[in-house]
């Protein structure tokens, strides 16, 4: 089709990684969009065939580097399902608290990037200041800020010490106060944000489920689907939490879904911290393990959607084939469909509201 | 909760048409069985209402890998089929835009995830650019 | 009236007063350049998230003169290369580097840019960016803490002030 071709190149001043779009425009309207990915392809699926099972753990938490604790939980659950191991109750409660920490940290980075792309640069500093509160607690528990190799097959690597539960509850009270008083007024009730994001970037309900989009992007289009309620794992069937669903499908609804999820996660952490049972926290496993030949699949609900890992094993000490199904891969395909008919100035708000991470798309 | 069904590669489109109303495509998994001389393709579908999974398994020959594309029935298969072409060399007939997606366009060394791909010094020293600073 | 540029000024020969004036100008320019470095905002993967934490308010880079407001390479002074550089991205990084005006400095952040790091056995990762760019300061870690970024910035300022970078010796 004829028109003017413009290139939004791999290095751009927002914080979403290396992603290239080729847009065909006429006047101010986009007629066709085509994405190009692969600038961060590091070969993780081939590395799983060279390295033994327990040595693959540092590779796993750099796949989704903003919330690394959720990916470690997924890989450890996969290995335990293949070997048929049951872990103790205390480890299950600690793992749930860590997974919800990962969810809050991811949504805070979303708020920082979203606010900065639309012009409110102060939101970048405020949201990252809240993230430092949580990173101090994680560093005290596990020893690492961004990539703690803490959740391993068999349980968790260190135990909770005396007095850490009071610090967690104090940090949650501070975070709840700041979300209500600062971030809601800056983003949700701000009339400039509403005028810029309502009715922009609409993803319809039938398109979303046919293109394979899951997670908060699908829940903002009216699909009521959360893997923690459909097939509960860890202790999610004993806890009481709501799943927020909105109908419009525009960028404002995607932001509202994530803000409500932060509040639900704070409730889950407070309830789980008060009732941790006593017991063992780790089952000791040898460093080199062998898995009998089988097909194993594990799906969990991460802050971006449903991520699945499929393992094909053949009885030796290395995997035969490991496949990672990521959630943002399909969101980029959906973005090619959303952009038809939109104006160029709405490109960055739409990209920020879908929240892609390049480490998971390119692997 | 996983039901799997083994079919021949010519019946793939007919089986996929029946699943269109209630299921969406979750993933396409390719395994290289070099000892038997075949590629094994697994198409995973998930139910839209609950968490049931269905797996359709086919085998194609390793010397001449060709199969029909399902990207007009399920639009989510577009990028997954391009990745299977990029990593293994499988040609999907009927796909509108079959070119490399994760590796650079002028990659000269073949298909990386096959079992007979060996990383040697020539691949390590290739930088992909001939500009100077 | 003829225009005098910096290069003509540095080639002037003369007596005692002119040499002293040249040395004073050179000292002032080096001191001024080192106290206000504007790096380009460029991040690819995990080290980029720690660079965002470095630019936020707990570790304040503003007190050292490092401001992250250069979005275009045409008015940037330095580049913090953070994140894994693959062979597909190497071309675009060189296009960005060639657009920056002289003098420009390069800092390599994290294990992936020093020697390939965790991905040493991979087929598509560039094993160290000193195969394509001249590097001045290396930062170790996977990923490094935000305080290590500040220490690298201060070290680069010392190197500029004492004129220890080889390719810009005597450059005005």
Question: What are the main properties of this structure?
Answer:
heterotrimer, A: 363 residues, alpha+beta, Cytochrome-c3 Hydrogenase, chain B, 3-stranded antiparallel sheet, 14 helices, 13% strand, globular, B: 133 residues, alpha/beta, Beta Polymerase, domain 2, 4-stranded mixed sheet, elongated
How much strand content do the residues of chain A show?
5-15%
Distance between the termini of chain A: 33 Å
Q: Give the strand content of chain C.
A: 5-15%
Shape of chain A: globular
The CATH class name of chain C reads Alpha Beta
List the helices and strands and how they pair.
The complex is a heterotrimer of chains A (363), B (133) and C (172).
Chain A: E1 4-8, E2 20-26, E3 29-36, H1 44-47, H2 57-60, H3 68-83, H4 89-117, H5 122-142, E4 151-152, E5 155-156, H6 164-188, H7 191-197, H8 205-210, H9 216-219, H10 227-230, H11 251-273, E6 294-302, E7 305-313, E8 321-325, H12 328-338, H13 347-354, H14 358-362
Antiparallel strand pairs in A: 1-2, 2-3, 4-5, 6-7, 7-8
Helix pairs in contact in A: 3-4, 4-5, 4-11, 4-13, 5-6, 6-11, 11-13
Chain B: E1 2-6, H1 12-18, E2 23-33, E3 38-47, E4 53-61, E5 66-68, H2 77-88, E6 91-93, H3 121-125
Parallel strand pairs in B: 1-4, 5-6
Antiparallel strand pairs in B: 2-3, 3-4
Chain C: H1 6-10, H2 16-34, E1 39-40, H3 46-55, E2 78-82, H4 90-98, E3 105-109, H5 111-115, E4 137-139, H6 146-161
Parallel strand pairs in C: 1-2, 2-3, 3-4
């Amino acid at each position: 089709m004829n028109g003017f071709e413009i290139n939004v190149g791999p290095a751009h001043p927002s914080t979403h990684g290396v992603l290239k779009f080729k847009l065909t425009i006429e006047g101010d309207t986009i007629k066709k969009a085509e994405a190009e990915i692969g600038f961060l392809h590091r070969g993780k699926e081939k590395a799983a065939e060279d390295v033994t099972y327990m040595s693959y753990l540092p590779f796993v938490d750099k796949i989704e580097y903003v919330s690394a604790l959720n990916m470690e939980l997924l890989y450890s659950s996969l290995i335990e399902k293949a070997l048929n191991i049951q872990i103790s109750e205390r480890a299950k409660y600690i793992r749930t608290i860590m997974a919800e920490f990962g969810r809050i940290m991811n949504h805070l980075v979303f708020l920082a990037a979203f606010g900065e792309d639309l012009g409110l640069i102060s939101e970048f500093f405020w949201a990252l200041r809240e993230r430092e509160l949580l990173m101090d607690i994680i560093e005290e528990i596990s020893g690492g800020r961004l990539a703690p190799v803490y959740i391993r097959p068999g349980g968790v690597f260190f135990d909770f010490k005396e007095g850490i539960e009071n610090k967690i509850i104090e940090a949650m009270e501070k975070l709840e106060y700041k979300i209500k008083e600062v971030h809601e007024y800056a983003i949700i009730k701000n009339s400039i944000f509403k005028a810029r994001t309502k009715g922009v970037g609409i993803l319809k309900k039938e398109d979303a489920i046919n293109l394979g989009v899951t997670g908060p992007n699908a829940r903002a289009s009216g699909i009521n689907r959360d893997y923690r309620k459909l097939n509960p794992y860890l202790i999610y069937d004993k806890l009481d939490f709501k799943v927020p669903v909105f109908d419009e499908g525009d960028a404002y609804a995607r932001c509202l879904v994530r803000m409500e999820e932060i509040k639900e996660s704070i409730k889950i952490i407070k309830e789980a911290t008060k009732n941790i049972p006593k017991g063992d926290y780790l089952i000791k496993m040898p460093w080199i393990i062998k898995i009998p030949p089988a097909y194993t699949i594990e799906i969990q609900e991460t802050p971006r959607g449903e991520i699945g890992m499929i393992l094909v094993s053949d009885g030796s000490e290395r995997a035969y084939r490991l496949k990672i199904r990521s959630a943002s891969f399909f969101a980029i395909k959906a973005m090619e469909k959303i952009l038809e008919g939109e104006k160029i100035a709405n490109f960055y708000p739409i990209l920020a509201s879908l929240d892609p991470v390049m480490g998971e798309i390119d692997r | 909760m996983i039901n799997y069904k083994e079919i021949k590669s010519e019946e793939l489109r007919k089986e996929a048409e029946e699943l269109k109303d209630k299921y969406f495509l979750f993933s396409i998994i390719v395994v290289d069985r070099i000892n038997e001389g075949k590629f094994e393709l697994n198409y995973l579908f998930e139910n839209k209402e609950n968490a049931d999974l269905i797996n359709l398994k086919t085998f194609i020959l390793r010397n001449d890998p060709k199969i029909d594309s399902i990207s007009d029935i399920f639009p989510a298969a577009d990028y997954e089929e391009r990745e299977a072409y990029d990593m293994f060399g499988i040609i999907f007939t009927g796909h509108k835009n079959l070119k490399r997606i994760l590796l650079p366009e002028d990659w000269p060394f073949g298909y990386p995830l096959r079992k007979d791909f060996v990383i040697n010094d020539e691949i390590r020293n290739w930088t992909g650019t001939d500009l100077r600073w | 009236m003829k225009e005098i540029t910096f290069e003509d000024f540095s080639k002037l020969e003369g007596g005692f007063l002119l040499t002293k004036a040249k040395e004073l100008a050179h000292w002032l320019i080096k001191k001024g350049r080192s106290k206000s470095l504007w790096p380009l905002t460029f991040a690819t993967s995990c080290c980029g998230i720690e660079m965002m934490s470095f630019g936020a308010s707990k570790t304040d880079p503003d007190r050292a003169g490092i401001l992250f407001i250069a979005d275009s390479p045409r008015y940037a002074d330095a580049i913090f290369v953070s994140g894994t550089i693959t062979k597909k991205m190497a071309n675009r990084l060189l296009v960005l580097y060639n657009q920056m005006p002289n003098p420009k400095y390069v800092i390599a952040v994290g294990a992936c840019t020093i020697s390939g790091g965790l991905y040493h056995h991979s087929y598509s990762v560039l094993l160290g960016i000193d195969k394509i760019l001249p590097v001045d300061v290396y930062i170790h870690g996977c990923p490094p803490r935000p305080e290590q970024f500040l220490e690298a910035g201060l070290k680069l300022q010392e190197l500029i002030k004492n004129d220890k970078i080889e390719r810009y010796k005597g450059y005005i």
